[in-house]
Amino acid sequence: MDYKAVIIGGSAGSFQVVTRILNSMPKNFPIPVLLCLHRLKHVRSGFVEALSLKSSIPVEEPYDKDQLKPSHAYLAPANYHMYIELANRIALSTEDPVNHSRPSIDLSFITAANAYRQKLIGIILSGANKDGAYGLKKVHDNGGTTIVQDPNECEVRTMTQSALQLTKVDHVYSTDQIIKYLLKL
Amino acid sequence: MTITDQDFQLFIYALKNSSKYDFSQYSEKSLRRRLAKVLADNKLTPPLLISRMKNDNKFVEKIVNEITVNTTELFRDPQVWQAIRYAILPKLKNNSVINIWHAGCSTGQEVYSMLILLSELGLLEKTKVYATDLNAEVLNNARQGQYKYRFNIGYLDNFDKVIKENPYNFEEYNDVPYENYFYIDKTSDLIKMSSNLKDKPIFKKHDLVTEDNTLYVKFDIILCRNVIIYFNYDLQNRVFDLFHKNLYDNGCLVLGLHETILGSYSVKFQKKGHAYYKN
Fold it and tell me: pTM of the full predicted structure?
């Protein structure tokens, strides 16, 4: 399968997992990586720097209408929803939070699913609410590949369990298996 | 509610035909989402919405007001306001007149932020502040200058960061009372801007997409924050053209924290800190 993007959603307990995934990626990872992670309200800065430290590909908080590039990771900026438009561009929005979240993982996943359809990999990681479950279902409904981090491995399992309840996902993987899967792309 | 591509196109077409509004170059994903919300809030189906739009101007205005996004804060992103205070406004202090345009001002919180800052710097007298928006309803809110208090308690933190503290000198603290600028009415749960601030700006309805500069002056500063994110790439360039033409030489444009100038206009502005200066 010729994938066009990977999108990863997570909240509490996902930071270490994302760090390990970004650390293990080859410098020439063939597609863009979209990250929609909840963060504490008062931690508005420093997050992208923290992720960049160990990442083997550049991590940036994109500007509106930025064009996505392969081998780059894009972190949804604090206090904005991050949408994927057709033509591979990011669109940001300050619409009200959804399920108390801005960025909303659901909205990023829904728009990415709509833009890339079967050529998208959606991954849901550890987290303390159900944001992302509906979005992952949309990835599935559009023919994309769906992966959920093994709840037994998650620091907080609400997010992964909600996703598993809503969708028959393709893979339930440990962090190591997620890394192995992505390395094969 | 899911909106089909055809419904979406028909809506934009109907709007264009029954009003002066043109949403055809708005960012698609968020416009679709807004449209779905408007349909749900009004308990309408796409065909019903479209047919009502055809012969009811008031209804069209209502729909346009509901579809536009109107989130804003007092001193939103304090670091940007610190830059306006310490890097942008000082350069204008010897001007005889300063013209500022808040394009897409929504409910006006940033207009009042600017007025407070101008007052602190002793520049309020000689500054003309213009504030425009597409949405007549939010402009009325802006004129009234009243905001929910408890819901917006973060406004006070932002105020402290920009007005009371100095990011370049941690020992400095100016204990400016809020009452200099607004009154917090806890009984009615409102922050009420003082009348000397409310009387100052010129509020006017204006559509960045279809209209030229209808204020008939040029500007030293244009603030347009978190507005162009709702426009697609091509439309953004039209708006940058409008801003470029209506800035004085050395005038500057202040965008939202994650907005930038891409494409051909990127070489016609130079970014310094949080502002884009006209080349």
Answer: 0.93
